[in-house]
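Recap quiz, item 2
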Amino acid sequence: QITLKESGPTLVKPTQTLTLTCTFSGFSLSTSGVGVGWIRQPPGKALEWLALIYWNDDKRYSPSLKSRLTITKDTSKNQVVLTMTNMDPVDTATYYCAHVLYSSRSTYFDYWGQGTLVTVSS
Amino acid sequence: SSELTQDPAVSVALGQTVRITCQGDSLRSYYASWYQQKPGQAPVLVIYGKNNRPSGIPDRFSGSSSGNTASLTITGAQAEDEADYYCNSRDSSGNHLLFGGGTKLTVL
């Protein structure tokens, strides 16, 4: 079965860089049509898509955060890493990674990790 | 426009039918997917593609689309369906993803 788990710091200081790792099992990121995405949710607020990496190493970023985000994959380790630079208190949120399926008219997240709460504070 | 719009809150009487909508220009070209999120939990996919349910999702959940509006319908709402519901799709360029602002469903 497919599982994903996020890991990384729970507390970062303003201006620091956040590095989150998604470790997954039950699928290969070499399979056509498959990807891994990152989504965040500030406390009490809506979901926000951040970034996505596909099986062919195609990478997509939220236009509003593109300058701060980098997503990479290590297929041999079954991991996807997201870095976000210049962290600010408004970036305090639960960060989720999720398994993605892509088709010509649809991209959706069918399996989600449990999420990890990241607090930005000095 | 590059956004998906949802009503913030909807209520339904127990056992009745409720429709939750999601509006956006990109929905003319791309399917929406729908997620249910209960407090303190990760979102769960309930509808994807034209009208597909993942394994384990009750058949009272269904999806449809017309023009720039996608809809999630719950036929015979149950108490356990009380949750936040989010739609998701690509933007009009097809290159990025969007989430709606979410709809809080209350089952009375």
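The mean pLDDT of chain B is 96.
Residues 17 and 75 of chain B are 4 Å apart (CA to CA).
End of item.
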